[in-house]
Amino acid sequence: MLPANAYVIRQATVDDEGVLRRLAKLDSRPPLVGPALIGEIDGTPAAAVSLANGSIASDPFRPTATLRQVLHLRARSLRAFEEQPSLSERMTPIMSGW
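-> structure tokens emitted (98 positions)
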């Protein structure tokens, strides 16, 4: 298990295209599609998740089980945030009856 400060999660950029391909190839998976998050261990990309479909690729030679779970959780939370209105928008109809 990795402590929370042992990894960094960041948004993939166009400069990370090669990183995403490398991780998918190492994991014997098809390339990730759409925007993605990259998880780094000690400054090195070790896993990535597609924000488009949730597929994950990781370096099988690194301890990435916890990182994969955190990436998946983060991707789901970003999707939920996009689908749900803001807190104030949710609270306005509720509070209007008070």
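The beta strands are 7-11, 36-41, 44-50, 56-58.
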